[in-house]
Amino acid sequence: MAEAALPRSRAASRDVVAGATAATGARVVAQGLGRRFQTPHGPVDALRDVSVTVEPGTFCVIVGPSGCGKSTLLRLVAALDRPTSGALTISRPDGRQPTNAMVFQGRSVFPWLTLRQNVAYGLKLRGVPRRERGDRADALLAMVGLKGFARAYPHQISEGMRQRVAIARALAVDPDLLLMDEPFGALDEQTRYLLQEELLRIWDRTGKTVLFVTHSIDEALILADRIVVMAAQPGTVREVIDVPFSRPRTLTGVRSDPVFTSLFGDIWGMIREEVTRSRAAQEAELPR
Ligand SMILES: Nc1ncnc2c1ncn2[C@@H]1O[C@H](COP(=O)(O)OP(=O)(O)OP(=O)(O)O)[C@@H](O)[C@H]1O
Ligand SMILES: [Mg+2]
Q1: Cα–Cα distance between 57 and 67 in angstroms, integer?
Q2: Structural domains in the chain?
Q3: Of the residues 68, 104, 107, 282, which should be mutated to test ligand 1's pocket, given the most ligand atoms within 8 Å of the CB?
């Protein structure tokens, strides 16, 4: 069984953001977690025996080859799906019920709502009075650099701006746990860099636990406290890597550190092995 214990690495107290109380962040504990899908071609173990502990306030990034179960893991943590084996516990240090919010790649905003209405949507569902939810939405839009765009509609802004709205929308409900599945995957490089820095700044202020999936090793090294490298077929934890760069981080600071090059090489070596292995397994299954 692969065990990944992610220690709390940051101070607990954070600023109050946009009227939200300072969140403490959730603890996520997976023990021997498995998810088997039944398919016409037989059972598929998307995840097998995954044991991971993510401490409150940790920025945890999951990398691994396509099909190794990253999205499946996030969906289980978000309670959008149920494990077929093992246990998953999500808790808050104060014993209260933790909340989460999910940001996907490019499909997290409603096109028929203004940006302010998009960000305020979750608050409306929770019965927050109109005035208060408008104020909170405006504060969050300002935080993600979209102050003048509250009345705009999603089609009137760029993809990068839409992703910022999606992040603001997720933050509006003040979740203890932010689940992000390749949120910057479809963006151009410059926008991605800006959003990475912005996300780090927001995370630093809010103290949430973040589970972030990416295919980019570079992105993982810039954002994470720890990186969970997954192996494919079945999806298991292959390695957990501590990311030693001090915070606050900048892209140039992290990239110019010699440790960056060596960690990049280590992680790429592992992923390369996994991709090669899973391709060989797929080819062996093809009819001759
Ligand atoms: N609903 C489902 N039914 C059957 N198989 C599924 C289902 N969902 C996922 N799988 C399988 O589980 C495995 C893991 O899928 P998952 O989407 O979690 O991978 P991933 O790591 O997120 O991949 P990617 O990097 O391409 O997004 C794959 O083999 C996939 O085909
Ligand atoms: Mg996925």
Answers
A1: 28
A2: 2-99+207-285 (3.40.50.300)
A3: 68
